[in-house]
């Protein structure tokens, strides 16, 4: 007789974070109150505050989840483009296309959070750390691709990526991702040159 293993239910902390993820992303951080998160996650108030003494603690935990998910999607899209770093710089924009086509897409969770928080706050600092990490990874790939100025190329590509994330939400259309990828291809072609486009490089780890 075969036996099936039961998947353990999510912990109270996980339920809180999952609920916060859904509500923060759909409605915004300021518009989502702690009482609503407690009610929808099905935990006691004491349990909530045991795990998250302040709302900022929960917002940072939410952004950690967003970071892991989005960084994973970017890296997967880059690796799917093949071994050549120049192709990976263009291929990572496929993650943007997938995001813009997702039901309920409301833009970049980090940009949204930054718009709702003051510079220098814990939450704002977490958004800056994420963007800095992504840009550093793109810069490393640009260097592997033989870009003449990896810093300038990584800055241009991440600005293009952020613009595509915002435009995809405003236009409610995945067309922004198509335009962004085409623009990325032109930028990479100009920065790397035809002799380096097909060169394979080492695989960069997660940012």
TrEMBL record:
<feature type="DNA-binding region" description="H-T-H motif">
    <location>
        <begin position="33"/>
        <end position="52"/>
    </location>
</feature>
<dbReference type="InterPro" id="IPR050109">
    <property type="entry name" value="HTH-type_TetR-like_transc_reg"/>
</dbReference>
<protein>
    <submittedName>
        <fullName>TetR family transcriptional regulator</fullName>
    </submittedName>
</protein>
<dbReference type="GO" id="GO:0000976">
    <property type="term" value="F:transcription cis-regulatory region binding"/>
</dbReference>
<dbReference type="Pfam" id="PF00440">
    <property type="entry name" value="TetR_N"/>
</dbReference>
<feature type="domain" description="HTH tetR-type">
    <location>
        <begin position="10"/>
        <end position="70"/>
    </location>
</feature>
<dbReference type="InterPro" id="IPR009057">
    <property type="entry name" value="Homeodomain-like_sf"/>
</dbReference>
<dbReference type="InterPro" id="IPR036271">
    <property type="entry name" value="Tet_transcr_reg_TetR-rel_C_sf"/>
</dbReference>
<keyword id="KW-0238">DNA-binding</keyword>
<dbReference type="GO" id="GO:0003700">
    <property type="term" value="F:DNA-binding transcription factor activity"/>
</dbReference>
<dbReference type="InterPro" id="IPR001647">
    <property type="entry name" value="HTH_TetR"/>
</dbReference>
């Amino acid at each position: 007789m075969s036996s099936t293993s039961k998947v353990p239910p999510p912990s109270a902390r996980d339920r809180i974070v999952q609920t916060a993820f859904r509500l923060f992303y759909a409605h915004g951080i300021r518009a989502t109150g702690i009482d609503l998160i407690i009610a929808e996650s099905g935990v006691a108030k004491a349990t909530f505050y045991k795990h998250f003494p302040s709302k900022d603690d929960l917002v940072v935990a939410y952004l950690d989840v967003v970071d892991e998910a989005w960084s994973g999607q970017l890296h997967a899209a880059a690796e799917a483009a093949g071994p050549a770093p120049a192709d990976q710089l263009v291929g990572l924009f496929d993650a943007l296309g997938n995001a813009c086509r997702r039901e309920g897409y409301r833009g970049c969770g980090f940009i949204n959070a930054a718009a709702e928080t003051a510079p220098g706050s814990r939450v704002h600092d977490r958004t800056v750390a994420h963007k800095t990490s992504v840009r550093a990874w793109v810069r490393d790939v640009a260097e592997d691709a033989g870009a003449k100025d990896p810093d300038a190329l990584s800055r241009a590509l991440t600005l293009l990526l952020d613009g595509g994330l915002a435009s995809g939400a405003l236009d409610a259309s995945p067309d922004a991702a198509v335009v962004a990828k085409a623009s990325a291809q032109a930028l990479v072609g100009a920065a790397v040159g035809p002799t380096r486009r097909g060169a394979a490089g080492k695989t960069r780890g997660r940012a």
